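quick one: cobalamin bound model?
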Amino acid sequence: MTLAAEIEREVSAAGFHPVGTIVSDRDEAGSSVVRHDNPCQLLLVGSLGSDFWTVFSASTEAADGLPDAMDRFTRRVLGGLAETFGVEVLFPFDGPPYYPFQRWAKAYGGFSQSPLGVLAHESYGPWLGLRGAFVLPGVGEGEREPHILADGRCGNGPCGACVDKPCLNVCPVNAISSSQGYDYMTCRAYLSRTQDAACWHGCLARRACPFGQEHAHVSEQARFHMMSFVGS
Ligand code: B12
Ligand code: SF4
Ligand code: SF4
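yep, here:
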């Protein structure tokens, strides 16, 4: 079993969702990983749906009342795995400057930049959280693959072919448009002043996406993310 496959197995057992491995070089990865051998491999790890929520909500971090519970949980669990396997792990919340996690996911393939700001995927819809990237040793010349792996999971993501774009038509304050993208200040102001908004149970625009609906956040999970967004 390869190192990536071993880590993927442990990541799944811990409640996270392994996305896949990209080969990273200077141009794709940006300056943040150039201190590593190039090319290096990045194993992207996400979180998906209520499985992750179940594990996280039973953690000590979720109960201790301190800030950034999910980030601290993620750092403990994925950091522990990195230590076990003797590799480094990068986190999306370390910054600014932030590691370009969305760019990395697009390099893996299957994701499109949605009008919502988040990436959308045919299977996951707009519901995949990006939680970490394990930095694995570089691959040899002969083994080097293109950034998009030929394993059937890759493509351009669903947004380009989504004609109706229902995500654009449901926001109560028109914070999402095809021309301007996502106006997070308008969204945040609305949530702050409207405690009974339906959005507190999940962004209506995100929920309108027909893809990956089985991975939509449960109400408590949606509220957790909205609270941290409005407080940020
Ligand atoms: C800063 C930030 C924000 C800021 C954006 C402010 C701004 N305009 O710069 C704010 C606080 C608004 C924000 C909000 C949200 N965010 Co945010 N955010 C980030 C963060 C930490 C850094 C982005 C960045 O600067 N990257 C550095 C550049 C160089 O990387 P990049 O990949 O090339 O950059 C892309 C992004 O910057 C993106 N982008 C630009 N503006 C915005 C605005 C939003 C809202 C998003 C999501 C993306 C986005 O476009 C770039 C080109 O692809 C990333 C984590 C990360 N490390 O990327 C999460 C991240 C992009 N956010 C994410 C999410 C899910 C959200 C929320 C939907 C959270 C929620 N509530 O569930 C909210 C939106 C609120 C809502 N109503 O639902 C996810 C997206 C997952 C995905 N499938 O794509 C990320 C990857 C975090 C994660 N752990 O998964 N976010
Ligand atoms: S509704 Fe269509 S355009 Fe909007 S995020 Fe989903 S696939 Fe993309
Ligand atoms: S959370 Fe509500 S206000 Fe904010 S973008 Fe989504 S639908 Fe619009």
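Residues 171-173, 175-176, 187, 190, 199, 203-205 surround iron/sulfur cluster (ligand 3) (CB under 6 Å).
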